[in-house]
Amino acid sequence: MSRNILIAGISGLIGNKLARYLLPEYKVRGLVRNIKSAKSKLPEVDFYSWKEDEKFLVNLIEDSDIVINLSGRSIAKGRWTEKVKREIYSSRIETTKRLAELISKASKKPECFVVASAVGFYGLDINKISDENSPPSDDFLGRVCVDWEKASSLVDEFNVRRINVRISTVLSKDGGALPLMALPFNFFAGNYFGSGNQFFPWIHEKDLIRLFKFVIENKSITGPINAVSPQVVTMKEFCKTLGKVLKRPCWIRIPEWLMKLIFGEMADLLIKGGRVIPKKAIEAGFKFEFDDLELALRDLLNK
């Protein structure tokens, strides 16, 4: 008999692909705000609404062997106004806290609670090398990630295995950063941002989805785990490789001041960046299918 997995945030880019990947082996259900919209994307999945009363949601948790939370407003859409910052924060912390509270009230607890986090936990210091034991950064993203993970820690009191997957930039042809970064190359205006010397942590979408399944099925894994390719590249190296795959030049440098002018504080995501290492995944025996950037880009862009 297949086990039940409940995914919040299933309608997003990663949630959708993760659900499809898990469906052959698991009974996948989704916790969503708009059932009709979610059903149109994943007709094979049973969906339930966040608007149901608490008793119903607790029963749903009790019938779930694994609970995954991928909810969260995109950090890369528009300038970070104070309103946007509040949405980025609340969309992550409040859903995680709510799920943790429901788990605490369930008479039958799930085996594990898997919550997305981000490598933004470590900050954007170019001189910093980070693994799962590194301290958090005292900036906006660092504080969001700390509170995000803290919100999930309530389940520790009930001996529920908790995993916080700290995700780097996910490379996908269907959304996220890659299509936007590739667009200028189509017009022979390939570019890189800032000095180009900042690190650019990345992971192929297939490896991220495989890593989620890996942590679910490996009961020795608990706490934070970095979802990032073992190949470390700088922003300039990333964009040069992208240009090579697309057979387009990468010759324009967009200076930091212009990025700040256009994107405000959000520009730091592109003009800063530290080196993050997937120490825990490698030590646990996870094998990256795409640990070479050029091969990853060729796979995604059909080149």
Question: Which features does this protein show?
Answer:
12 helices; alpha/beta; 13 strands; 7-stranded parallel sheet; 19% strand
Description:
The termini are far apart. It is globular, with a radius of gyration of 19 Å. Helix 1 (13-22) crosses helix 7. By secondary structure, it is an alpha/beta fold. The chain contains twelve helices and 13 strands. Helices cover 39% and strands 19% of the residues. Helix 1 (13-22) links the parallel strand 1 and strand 2 (26-32). The protein has helices at 13-22, 35-41, 54-62, 82-105, 140-152, 177-182, 205-217, 235-246, 256-263, 268-271, 279-283, 293-300; strands spanning 3-8, 26-32, 46-49, 66-69, 112-118, 129-130, 161-167, 169-171, 190-193, 202-204, 223-227, 250-254, 275-276.
Question: What is the structure about, briefly put?
Answer:
The protein contains twelve helices and 13 strands.
Total helix count? 12
- Helix and strand composition category: alpha/beta
Helix content: 25-40%
DSSP summary, beta strand count: 13
Q: Helix and strand string, N-terminal first?
A: EHEHEHEHEEHEEHEEHEHEHHEHH
What's the Cα radius of gyration?
19 Å
User: Mean of residue pLDDT?
Assistant: 95
The fraction of residues in strands falls at 15-25%
Q: What is the straight-line distance between the termini?
A: 40 Å
The main sheet orders its strands as 3-2-1-4-5-7-11
Biggest sheet architecture: 7 strands, parallel
The gross shape turns out to be globular
Q: Which residue ranges are poorly predicted, with pLDDT under 50 across at least 5 consecutive positions?
A: none
